[in-house]
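Request: Have a read of the protein record below and say how the chain folds.
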Amino acid sequence: MQKRMATSPGRPRSAETERRILDVALRMLAEEGYSRMSLDAVAAEAGASKPTIYRRWASKADLATAALRTLQLAEPFVDTGSNSGDLSATLENFCRSLLRPNGMSLIGTVLAEEAHTPELLRLFRERLVAPRRAMLRAILERARQHNELRPDADIDTAVSALVGAIYARYLAASKIPPGFAKAVVETIWTGIASAPEAGTNPLATPSARQPSAGTVRRARRPPRDGRT
């Protein structure tokens, strides 16, 4: 009986090589713009071959948006224990991404290519815009399930207002002051929150969510006279 020859699965991909390629692509995008960034230059600086890049990404637009996506994936996980707190933390992550060196210019680079490279904007929306909006929408949907929002609250418009306020502030002042994200959430939350009980602040009311594992609760201090 003839022995079957073992077939090689192919050359394994290197995570380190991918990281170098993405890092170089991100830097070139920020410094030179999309139109000046070349795959030959990315490959040379990353110590990889052009075929290596094409085995991982189908086009320059594919590589560029994958590099931009790494910024969002690097953002810290959000779990504050309240839905309004999660909205603020998610927007804070967004602010930090925009305020990193050349953060806003990277977005401008993508928009500038809309007429010439529509694939770039399409992938940008798919890989960065849609996931960001989905995170905010999920928090608001959860808040509605916990009766924290009005039943008729327009969640899609609220998501646009949350993200749009950050862009608008940056364009007006080239910076985003500390606490701005929280102020945006408080303003928008007030417009969509369910009517609070008299004398309560809806943003200060504990959420129906349970704290994540590892959250430490402070023990309630007993009255000084020993009464319960």
Confidence is low (pLDDT under 50) at residues 1-10, 197-202, 204-208, 210-228. Residues 118-145 form the longest helix (28 residues).
